[in-house]
Amino acid sequence: MAGMSELKERLRTDLTAAIKAQDKVRSSTLRMVLTAVTTAEVAGKSSRELSDDDVLGVLISEGKKRREAAEAFDAGDRPEMAAKERAESEVLADYLPQQLSNEEVAALVAETISSVGAAEEGIRAMGKVMGALQGKVKGKADGSFVAAEVRRQLG
Predict the structure, then answer these.
(1) Which long-range contacts (CB under 8 A, 24 or more apart) does 33-36 make?
(2) Which residues contact 41 (CB under 8 A, 6 or more apart)?
(3) Considering only CA atoms, which of 15, 31, 24, 11 is closest in space to residue 84?
(4) Segment 128-149 mean pLDDT
(5) Residue 5: its pLDDT value, please?
(6) pTM attached to this predicted model
(7) Which of 33, 52, 69, 133 is most exposed, with the fewest beta carbons within 10 Å of its own?
(8) For the stretch 13-42, what's the b/e string if a residue is b when 16 or more beta carbons lie within 10 angstroms of its beta carbon?
(9) Which CATH number fits domain 102-154: 1.10.10.410, 3.90.78.10, 3.30.160.270, 3.40.50.10860?
(10) Could you give the CA distance from residue 42 to residue 27 in angstroms, rounded to a whole number?
(11) How much of the chain, in percent, has pLDDT values that exceed 90?
(12) If DSSP codes are grouped into helix, strand and coil, which group holds residue 77?
């Protein structure tokens, strides 16, 4: 297929390999994420191939769903279901950029606050700081953690 994103092509190739290796968790997770990519492609007015950035967005979203589901299953005393969600999350993590450490996020937040001149504005500058941070942390750090760190440093 012409114009297929490299990331989507890698997902398809890895799915084939996982099926041949009879890796049930990996193959079901990759099927699920490819379905989500296809759904995103046909959503909206005109269907189109997703770019690598768009596919990355789908992967981030699916990973977040898995983490939230695992927490919900833990809270509901369903450890076997939580373990399944975590295993799927680990498969998805293979396709995401290297995650930033807590220290790296804190340093990036501090740097961004000073570069946009938001230190004096306090918490009112949250939107400005988050906007400036988005491109730097997309796919590399959990958005809720980044927001909490911005709140902490501005507060």
Answers:
(1) 33/58, 33/59, 33/62, 33/92, 33/95, 34/8, 36/61, 36/62
(2) 47, 48, 49, 50
(3) 24
(4) 87
(5) 84
(6) 0.77
(7) 52
(8) ebbeebeeeebeebbbbbebbbebbeebbe
(9) 1.10.10.410
(10) 23
(11) 57
(12) coil
User: Please, which pLDDT band fits residue 143 given cuts at 50, 70 and 90?
Assistant: confident
Domain residue extents for the chain: 6-93, 102-154
**Does domain 6-93 correspond to CATH entry 3.40.50.300?**
no
* Strand, coil or helix: 149: helix
Give residue for tokens 């290796």.
21
Q: Which amino acid is at 92?
A: L
Residue 106, token pair as written in the block: 């804190």
CA-to-CA distance for 77 and 12, rounded, in angstroms?
34
